[in-house]
Amino acid sequence: LDKIPAQWKQYLNKISVHPFNQQIISEFVDNKRPEEIVTLSLPDIVNNFKARLKKILQNKSEFYHTKDEIACDKNDTRGLSQKKIHEVSAFSQFISEKCTENTIIDVGSGLGYLDERLLQRGFNVIGIESNNSIHKGAMERHKKMNIDEERLRHINLIFGCDSESFSVLNSCSDVGRGGCLVALHACGDLTNHIINAFLQSQNIRCMAVVSCCYHKMLGTFPLSQELKDLSMHHDIDFFNHYFLRLGANEPLSRWWRMSADEHVEHCNNVVFRAVLEIFCQQRTLELKKKRRKATKKSEVKDFDSYLQNVQNIYDLSFNQKDISEIKELYDTKYELHNLVENISGLQFLIQQVIESLILADRKSYLEQFGAKTELYHVFDDVISPRNTVIYAVKS
User: Fold this and answer.
1) Which helix (H) or strand (E) holds 62?
2) Which residue of 75, 98, 184, 348 has the smallest Cβ count within 10 Å?
3) Residue 297: which pLDDT band, with cuts at 50, 70 and 90?
4) Taking a C-beta distance cutoff of 8 angstroms, is the pair 33, 363 a contact?
């Protein structure tokens, strides 16, 4: 917090989240009502930030949406979330309109929901799945559905730029026609593996990939020579795990739709956890979760509730003296609530900048090797946060 410029810190400390959203966030949100924008005299440092951010975000990716021509069969989508149905429907429609190849290679095919939609649209499909149990589940599922095994093949494979993966790609194309590589939410470095396989395989003509989990990339950002040169020229030293993790955050549309109660819950969760982390660091204690979702709504209602449940949330054991000291520590940090929640809002703003840079880097890398590349938003980002397709075609 000591690194935050004084003007910013003073502004963020004194303003609550609702007017903060109206004064800053509203100008970067689509489909807001005029009354949700409030223009006031703001500190110069805030106005300069807004002006620079607008300049960066003025060239947004194209939104690509057409109505799905094939209705979803309730039997085929049983057990699927609305998010998954939305993604499979929209992505399969995009592929059918953009890809002229007869064979689709779906990397990370899972249980094959996308593959089924692509079959309905007339494609032959090869589903590649690295998880053996999911791979077997897809095969059993499609066997029960009497899907033609000649048109949908299942391969259990960890996909990469290796001989086994290229063997699959080389076997996919018909005479005179190439294949199309696709992936719905390619995690971490998988997108980069797909991009390189696309560039190196003579049998693949186009690719359509939706990425996710940027923070799981292992030293492969930036990818393009263009961004590497810029990074070196400007001596950029913040392309790290935390930078990529922020790029994988939820989009601004999620923040904008949060209610007042949800902001209180979110802020409490962040501040309470920060206080606990400070206490544990002071005593060299490891803060380890007992469950995946660390806190429930009832557990962050107030700090007393949090402390009553903390030993159910984390693998910790506190005595009464510890509890008293943690409360004293919290009292010294209480005034940070506004600051913390407003900084979270700024993180949501910066998220779209970072994600745009990651995607632009991949686009530049593909174009570096002669592939015509476009970025398209194909999902509603309220439903599916990672909603951009990297679409490339070899010239």
Assistant:
1) strand 62-63
2) 75
3) confident
4) no
Give per-residue pLDDT as tens, 282-294. Answer: 999 888 887 766 5
Are the beta carbons of 106 and 115 closer than 8 angstroms? Answer: yes
Distance CA 63, CA 169 (A): 30
Q: Quote the CA–CA distance of 19 and 353 in Å, as a whole number.
A: 23
Helices marked H in 64-179 — which ranges?
82-98, 113-120, 132-144, 163-170
User: Using an 8 Å Cβ cutoff, are 382 and 203 in contact?
Assistant: no
Number of Cβ atoms within 10 Å of the Cβ of 16: 13
Please, which residues have CB within 8 angstroms of residue 236's CB and are 6 or more apart in sequence? 230
Residue 351 buriedness (CB in 10 A; 0-12 / 13-18 / 19+): buried
Say how many C-beta atoms besides its own lie within 10 A of residue 349's C-beta: 19
Q: Tell me, rounded to whole angstroms, the distance of Cα 382 from its chain centroid.
A: 12
CB neighbourhood size of 344 (10 A):
17
> What letter would DSSP give residue 302?
S
The H or E element spanning position 186 is strand 179-187
| DSSP letter string, 247-294 | HTSPPHHHHHT--HHHHHHHHHHHHHHHHHHHHHHHTT----BSSSS-
Q: What is the dihedral of CA 73, 75, 80, 82, to 10 degrees?
A: 40
Enumerate residues 6+ apart whose C-beta is below 8 A from 387. 210, 251, 377, 378, 379, 380, 381
CA dihedral 77, 82, 88, 94 (to 10 degrees): 140
Reading phi first (left if > 0) and then psi (alpha if -120 to 50, else beta), residue 141 is in alpha
**340's tokens:** 């913390």
The DSSP result for 103-124, as a single string, is EEEEET-TTSHHHHHHHHTT-E
When pLDDT is cut at 50, 70 and 90, the band that residue 2 belongs to is confident
- Write the pLDDT tens digit of every residue in 74-116: 556 667 888 999 999 999 999 999 998 889 999 999 999 999 9
